[in-house]
Amino acid sequence: MYSYIEKPIWTYIFIILCTIMFVFQNLTDYWIYLAFFPAYAFRMPWTFITSIFLHADIEHLLFNMIALFFFGLGLENIVGRRLFVIIFILSGIFGNIGYLITDPSSIIPGIGASGAIYGVVGTLVVLTPFRRVFLYGLFPIPLILLVALWTIIDLAGLFSPSTVAHGAHLAGLVVGILFGVYLRRYLVRVEYY
Predict the structure, then answer these.
(1) From 51, 60, 114, 166, active-site residue
(2) Domain for residue 3, yes or no?
(3) What is the mean pLDDT for each group of 10 consecutive residues in the chain (193 residues)?
């Protein structure tokens, strides 16, 4: 349905950058100036972007990087490098805005690429809803079902206290879906010419 645009590179760059930043976090306390705190968001506006590349622990990093590897490569192959970067960064920024909206006075740092990855997945699900993915690495299901499950979990999570910024996930997903709707119209139109 969609044509190959260019070989992915940014998925790998973002994985490498997140890994480097994780090492940085474990060697110094300066990472705190890069983390997103809703209560201080407008005093530290750079954190809307820098926090995307930080992670709480090795499990958080690994889960996000595995998701970024599979979903990122899939999307970058479809939309190309430039659009992939735009989708990733804007979804991450809006993920932080989602955290800000759902918990505006929080002084718990929001870190991680989850909002950006949810945006990638949101775009991918609109473009390829029946792409086969493996739940827990074992059970093949269509991507649209996985996204529906994640959405239900995050919506429920908004109403139960946890260390997960569910608002960030949902905001990133919405931005990704909006990109997908726009791109689907454009890519399908191009296909017929």
Answers:
(1) 114
(2) no
(3) 70 98 95 96 97 96 96 95 97 97 92 97 96 86 95 91 89 97 75 39
